[in-house]
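Could you join me in thinking about how sequence relates to backbone shape in a protein? We need material for that, and I hope you will provide a protein of your own picking. Once you have written the record down, we can walk along the chain together:

…
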Amino acid sequence: MNIRFMQSQYIRIGGPDMHLVLVPTEVDLDISVDFYRLLLQELQVVNPIGKSFCRIGRENDGGYLMLDDFQGNVAYSFGINNDVSWDEDVANRGYDVYMYDHTIDALPYERKEFHWFKNGLADKMGQEPTLQFLEWYLWKNEHMHEEHMLLKMDVEGAEWGALEQVNPVLLMQFDQIVLEIHDLIKAHTDQKRMQILSVLHKLNQTHYMVHVHGNNNSGAITLAERLIPDVLEVTFVNKNLVSVDTEAVVMLPRELDQPNDPYRQDYVLGKMKGL
């Protein structure tokens, strides 16, 4: 069963158990209902026991909810543009921040904890030398055995290929991972859909998904009364760091969440129950 959405006009195709509604966006869309059933299985948010959330980064776009539990001193930040608010908040908590963005010529400002490189994340083999895989950067910075690191990644869709290449053992070195994941309603090919599901499944093996926030700058669909934005901000916490309540129902957005676009209503993802 497919639904096709073309140039701000949508056609609904569904069975008796489905109700699909598209928020207009200027994209071509060809989605599989089966893919979204599997996607929702991977997007299961659990509630950490005895931990509180804090907002790291600026208000609205650029801030992420994380657990207020910071034990390390090395953070990696991929995708900077003109916003170093997340990096600054992390540096204020005692981290050296290794920052990568090959699309800019300089940071908005410098501080001693910032280590910026005009490089980016590779999402496949054989790309230009300025793009490398995460493991290469850890090796280059002598962090292959560093523990309790943080990872922030906002790389406009390259996250899927980049994370597909990462060894799960390496992921265990990161206490918290915050991602902006893209193209959830633009997954045009079976290969891309399988890549998205595979990456989320890999992350869910080593980390708990403790928070999800919909980016209201993107379009969205509803599937069986569940809203799925095209872009999500997701927080993962290392399973060795926390215990979770698998029966708790999580209401999203949380109190500390803010709409990415302050002039639009935030996406209400509603009740989510994990595992």
